[in-house]
Amino acid sequence: GAVVSQHPSRVICKSGTSVKIECRSLDFQATTMFWYRQFPKKSLMLMATSNEGSKATYEQGVEKDKFLINHASLTLSTLTVTSAHPEDSSFYICGLADHLSTDTQYFGPGTRLTVL
Amino acid sequence: KQEVTQIPAALSVPEGENLVLNCSFTDSAIYNLQWFRQDPGKGLTSLLLIQSSQREQTSGRLNASLDKSSGRSTLYIAASQPGDSATYLCAVSFGNEKLTFGTGTRLTIIP
Q1: What would the pLDDT profile of B27-50 be if each residue is shown by its tens digit?
Q2: Which of A30, A76, A84, B101 has CB atoms 3.0–4.6 Å from A115's, for a disulfide?
Q3: Sorting pLDDT into bands at 50, 70 and 90, what band is A50?
Q4: Residues 42 to 101 of A: which have CB under 8 A from any B CB?
Q5: Which of A46, A110, A112 minimises the CB distance to B99?
Q6: Does A112 touch chain B (CB under 8 A)?
């Protein structure tokens, strides 16, 4: 299956700063990537769909100006949490779909964000 | 709005036992259903994917079934091992690649 990496794996920042999370597809060209957020002991919630070369599509209730997504190439999507606050502390996971074969989705290892 | 529920939320079983995890969804018009495994603080590993036209899929000690009409799927794990301890998530898709995840079952295999 596809190999997906995320960087950083863990980040701690002060309230008010911005944090960029990278999601890379190492062996697969993904026109679409997905960003999920997972709070402790909760399931994953889709935040937005990242489309290569165009604007991301955000789910209801997700602020597009706060969670900036850039999908500049077929192998890289970035999520920037702007002016982070403690309530943004969460586990952020990116995923991509291998729709050319089995529709299986593959996920990165996740990024743990802690905002102090 | 599609809701995906997993019962139980947590399960502990002795090593070697067979077990079943349950997943139910409210909208039966799914495209496919996928089972994932998540280790603490880690990402997701895809275990099995069942297309809407299929009834089950098998991989090693894992068997997933799908009853679309009743909105249910089960994940059967045979001869459980301590390494099977993890959180198991089911997720449904409606063909637009977006996944709706279940609430998860935290499985602990007792050595």
Answers
A1: 888 989 999 999 988 889 989 999
A2: A84
A3: confident
A4: 42-46, 49, 91, 93, 95, 97, 99
A5: A46
A6: yes
